[in-house]
UniProtKB/TrEMBL annotation:
Enzyme class: isomerase
Gene3D superfamilies for this protein: 3.30.70.260, 3.40.50.1360
Stored InterPro entries: NagB/RpiA_transferase-like (IPR037171), Ribose-5P_isomerase (IPR050262), Ribose5P_isomerase_typA_subgr (IPR020672), Ribose5P_isomerase_type_A (IPR004788)
Stored PANTHER family: RIBOSE-5-PHOSPHATE ISOMERASE 2-RELATED, RIBOSE-5-PHOSPHATE ISOMERASE 3, CHLOROPLASTIC-RELATED
Lineage: Eukaryota, Viridiplantae, Streptophyta, Embryophyta, Tracheophyta
Region (Disordered): 1-21
EC number(s) on file: 5.3.1.6
Molecular function via GO: ribose-5-phosphate isomerase activity
Signal peptide per UniProt: none
Protein name: ribose-5-phosphate isomerase
Catalytic activity: aldehydo-D-ribose 5-phosphate = D-ribulose 5-phosphate
Species of the source: Urochloa decumbens
Pfam families: Rib_5-P_isom_A
Associated pathway: Carbohydrate degradation; pentose phosphate pathway; D-ribose 5-phosphate from D-ribulose 5-phosphate (non-oxidative stage): step 1/1
Keywords: Isomerase
């Protein structure tokens, strides 16, 4: 895993906010974009800064021929407003060739494995970012973790039919593990609790670990994906080619996938 760091800001400068850190990392990621590329467009607050920057460069004529494949309905709307031409992942003319995907992440471990999808877009994100030639991830340093699952939920997308049963099968994968819990995600609507529904019409199971996941992540991934009713999970293993980290001191670090 290689790295490169930018120079820190002048002494005495105020520390940037988390949103400013996200913007810095996003703008650095957009430097990888070249004219004529088709991009996988990520979802979330960090990726939104990249969308805005791409839109600015398109309007300035700096990125001719660039188009994007959105990972969610929210991203599709944002990209359209930013003036980014959009393409489907697949269609009558065949799938778009995705040269580069740019997205944020909820967690990044030392091997550049990710947790993504706490916003609920993990299936489309994994389909599009997995189809691309390169995947650049943009985070601030708070997202770096020793193990996946340290800072919050790992989402699992499941079909609505028999969802409580599928939840029980997911719990069995981690049967007896201290500090493990799982639940179906709900949202408040009109003062009532309703099931959270993804863009694909599915539900989300949230898995929680007291001190992160320990064990072989690929074995755990396989165990989850073998459960009938599970569509996909939010562990993105071995997919990121570069992670851009905006540090609290104002520097930027680039982490690269081991070859």
């Amino acid at each position: 895993m290689g790295s490169a760091a930018a120079s820190p800001p002048p002494s005495g400068s105020p520390l940037p906010s988390q949103d400013e850190l996200k913007r810095v990392a996003a703008h650095r990621a957009v430097e990888f974009v070249e004219p004529g590329m088709t991009l996988g467009l990520g979802t979330g607050s960090t990726a939104a800064h990249a969308l805005d920057r791409i839109g600015d460069l398109l309007r300035a004529g700096a990125l001719p021929g660039v188009a994007g494949v959105p990972t969610s309905l929210k991203t599709e709307l944002h990209a359209s407003r930013a003036g980014i031409p959009l393409l489907p992942l697949g269609g009558a003319a065949g799938p778009a060739r995705i040269h580069l995907s740019i997205d944020g992440a909820d967690e990044v471990d030392a091997d550049l494995n990710l947790v993504k999808g706490r916003g609920g877009s993990l299936l489309r994100e994994k389909m599009i970012e997995g189809a691309g030639e390169r995947f650049v991830v943009i985070v601030d340093e708070s997202k770096l973790v020793p193990r996946l699952g340290c800072t919050g939920a790992i989402p699992v997308e499941v079909v609505p039919f028999g969802a409580p049963h599928t939840l029980g099968l997911i719990r069995k994968v981690f049967d007896g593990l201290p500090g493990f819990s799982a639940r179906l995600r709900t949202v408040k609507k009109d003062a009532a609790e309703e099931m959270f529904v993804t863009d694909n019409g599915n539900y989300i199971v949230e898995m929680f670990f007291e001190d992160g996941i320990r064990g072989d992540l690929r074995d755990i991934s396989d165990s989850l994906l073998r459960i009938t009713g599970v569509v996909e999970h939010g562990m993105f293993l071995g997919m990121a080619t570069t992670v851009i980290v905006a540090n609290r001191d104002g520097t930027v670090t680039l982490l690269h996938k081991k070859k």
